[in-house]
Design a protein that fits this description.
This protein is α+β, with helices and mostly antiparallel strands. The protein folds into two domains: 76 residues, no CATH class; 126 residues, Nucleotidyltransferase, domain 5 (2-Layer Sandwich), CATH 3.30.420. The chain is built from six helices and nine strands; from the N terminus they run E-H-E-E-E-H-E-E-E-H-E-H-H-H-E. The strands form two sheets. Strands 1-9-4-3-2 form a five-stranded antiparallel sheet. A hairpin with a 2-residue loop joins strand 6 and strand 7. The protein is elongated and about 65 Å long. 31% of the residues are buried.
Length: 213
């Protein structure tokens, strides 16, 4: 039996209201059910859409689950975003999807080397020191840009390199940020202003996995 194809799309909150109509137009009338963390739509031809609730939980509803998802996704939220990858970092605060303050920076981290023996060990130590310096710079920027807004933030959204983000968030000075609800993990390229703005959009979007019938 052939396995159904699945694909994932990101839908901006502003486009979500009409998304189900377009889905139903392509696949037939859809039955929608909801849980705290997801909303499912199953169409007449067997196609299904699994929608992850952004910043769960979704408030319980006995009425229209899709409208409840739209209203939840459209809520104005203030988000902190921290991105770190080898070579750069970006920190910003978004209010209702608009970037209100930010800082982006570069910090060189040497790539891996194929050398062996003592040379390899020397390069590895240098790389570790460079990565530590990168994390240190990212922490200082997060302290200036995001930490003062911690009490106003609905969530902290992170992306880039997981170990580097983890190293940054264990810094006790970022304890209030680390304790915030965590938004979706973001896969990003080099942290630049453009990447940061796109990260803010992605953080608000609803992730929908579509499986054809």
């Amino acid at each position: 039996m052939a396995q159904a194809d699945a694909r994932t799309v990101l839908v901006a909150p502003e486009r979500l209201a009409g998304w189900l109509e377009r889905f139903a137009a392509s696949h037939g009338a859809a039955e929608v059910t909801a849980q705290a963390g997801f909303v499912d739509a199953r169409a007449a031809d067997g196609a299904a859409a699994h929608c992850e609730v952004p910043f769960p939980p979704l408030p319980p509803t006995r009425d229209d689950p899709w409208q409840a998802l739209v209203e939840h996704a459209m809520r104005d939220r203030r988000l902190g975003v921290l991105l770190i990858r080898r070579g750069g970092y970006a920190a910003g605060v978004f209010d209702a999807g608009k970037l209100v303050t930010s800082k982006v920076g570069n910090r060189y981290v040497q790539g891996r080397t194929a050398a062996g023996g003592t040379s390899q060990q020397r390069f590895a130590r240098r790389r570790e020191n460079q990565a530590a310096a990168l994390v240190g710079s990212a922490v200082e920027v997060a302290l200036r840009i995001i930490a003062p807004e911690a009490a106003t933030l609905a969530a902290l959204v992170t992306g880039g390199d997981r170990p580097l983000i983890a190293s940054a968030l264990v810094d006790p000075r970022l304890a209030k940020l680390a304790a915030l609800p965590r938004g979706p993990w973001l896969v990003v390229g080099d942290p630049r202003l453009k990447s940061l703005i796109e990260a803010g959009r992605s953080a608000r979007a609803v992730r929908i996995t579509i499986t054809d019938g």
